[in-house]
UniProtKB/TrEMBL annotation:
Family membership: Belongs to the CpcE/RpcE/PecE family.
Pfam families: GUN4, GUN4_N
InterPro entries: ARM-type_fold, GUN4-like, GUN4-like_sf, GUN4_N
One Gene Ontology MF term: tetrapyrrole binding
The protein's name: GUN4-like domain-containing protein
UniProt cross-references to Gene3D superfamilies, sorted A to Z: 1.25.40.620, Gun4-like
Length: 240
């Protein structure tokens, strides 16, 4: 339901939206961002101002939504702003393995979750090394040795660009909340329905209507050991 206080057209409206974007709850901010997107350059300017004020803090999914509006805009001032202030994207692309995560950020910013899912496993294979790149999937032992920094970067990219719905940490929290019960976990994130595994790719949901934790697939078709290693990784207790 759209906030009845949100209307468009006058300078007062823009100023009201600006203040509510800065001071409002997550729900209010979530409503206001698409409203600003419909107001042309004036709305985009508010989103730019919003991101600049928050750039020294770790990006949240609200920052991700504001960034996505600018990223997917054809407006020259939006493109210039992002190139100047966020040339790699809203999420810092740190890697201890020398991996370029910019293509993954671009796919997620464009909300192309299916391509981003494929890119995620490709990048994880790059981290694991040439043998994994050649085979195109991971052994659980390779996940055990994954750099904390890289796992944080991949996870943050998914979190920030999915309204906080997707990411390994989201999946892990769900798994923990279910007492680490895999049989309950698979249907909870819609990877299984009864006795039937969700068929790749057409039966998966590649947008934000998916259940929380539905993506990324994290090598889902190769059994439990890879995702179990992900959930046991020290990244979730070690900050970078």
């Amino acid at each position: 339901m759209t906030d009845p206080m949100i209307v468009s057209g006058t300078a007062n409206d823009i100023d009201s939206l600006r203040q509510r974007l800065i001071a409002g709850s997550l729900q209010v901010q979530q409503q206001i961002i698409p409203q600003l997107a419909e107001l042309g350059n004036e709305g985009l300017e508010v989103l730019m101002e919003f991101l600049l004020k928050r750039r020294e803090s770790p990006a949240t999914w609200i920052d991700g939504k504001a960034y996505q509006v600018l990223y997917n805009s054809d407006a020259p001032n939006a493109r210039e702003f992002l190139q100047t202030n966020f040339p790699e994207g809203i999420v810092p692309l740190k890697s201890d393995a020398g991996i370029n995560y910019k293509p993954l950020q671009q796919l997620l910013a464009a909300q192309d979750f299916q391509a981003a899912d494929r890119m995620t496993i490709e990048k994880m294979c790059e981290v694991a090394g040439p043998t994994a790149v050649k085979r195109k999937w991971l052994y659980f032992t390779e996940v055990d040795n994954f750099p904390v920094t890289d796992l944080h970067t991949i996870n943050n990219l998914w979190l920030v660009h999915s309204e906080g719905k997707f990411g390994f940490s989201v999946q892990r929290e769900i798994w923990l909340s279910l007492g680490k019960n895999w049989d309950n976990f698979w249907p909870k994130i819609a990877w299984k329905d009864g006795n039937n595994w969700t068929r790749y790719p057409n039966s998966f949901i590649w947008d934000l209507s998916a259940p929380k934790g539905h993506l990324p697939l994290s090598n889902q078709l190769r059994g439990v050991r890879v995702i179990a290693s992900l959930f046991a990784h020290p990244a979730w207790t070690n900050k970078v």
